[in-house]
Amino acid sequence: EYSCEYGSLKFYALCGVGGILSCGLTHTAVVPLDLVKCRMQVDPQKYKSIFNGFSVTVKEDGVRGLAKGWAPTFIGYSMQGLCKFGFYEVFKILYGNMLGEENAYLWRTSLYLAASASAEFFADIALAPMEAAKVRIQTQPGYANTLRQAVPKMFGEEGIWAFYKGVAPLWMR
């Protein structure tokens, strides 16, 4: 009757796949909008509005330029979705078992919030490296055009820290 047993490894895997699909695909679909938004934040004199930002980007980079940063977006947000959806269920069951059945029911809102915050902690660690690469690709002209170019350059210049400088702001969000 059910596709899998609640709390089984298959259950967690399916939740993770759901996260990959819902986060990775949706964030990748809006890369052009995110690219223009990031550029407007970095260079408001050049990118004066959303429509102007699209126009400037297409003039300078062609239509393909609107896809800049798609790979780190897809990978990063897929990892975030995997962790967010999968770990949420792990922590919900873990914390529910710690509280006991009756208290888990009585305190379910707090339990769900705690499980969500715990999952997001790890999801943001998974997202941060790709988000850092995406922002460099999208906002620093000439830095790198692809993920394969950005990652070794970032590591060579700043070491591993280059990929995690943004994790604290992600947690604050």
SSE blueprint and pairings:
Blueprint lengths: L8 H21 L1 H12 L7 H12 L8 H30 L1 H6 L1 H32 L7 H12 L8 H6 L1
Protein name: Solute carrier family 25 member 3
Family: Belongs to the mitochondrial carrier (TC 2.A.29) family.
Keywords: Membrane, Mitochondrion, Mitochondrion inner membrane, Repeat, Transmembrane, Transmembrane helix, Transport
* End-to-end distance: 39 Å
Low-confidence stretches: none
- Summed up, the helix count is 8
Q: Residue share in helices? A: over 70%
Radius of gyration: 19 Å
CATH topological fold name: Mitochondrial carrier fold
Q: Quick one: overall form?
A: elongated
**CATH superfamily placement:** Mitochondrial carrier domain
Kindly name the structural category.
mainly alpha
How many β-strand stretches? Answer: 0
CATH architectural designation: Alpha/alpha barrel
| Main beta sheet | none
What count of domains describes the coordinates?
1
Walkthrough of the structure:
The protein is mostly helical and 173 residues long. It has one domain: Mitochondrial carrier fold. Helices cover 76% and strands 0% of the residues. The chain is built from eight helices and no strands. Helix 1 (9-29) runs antiparallel to helix 4 (70-99) and helix 6 packs across helix 7. It is elongated.
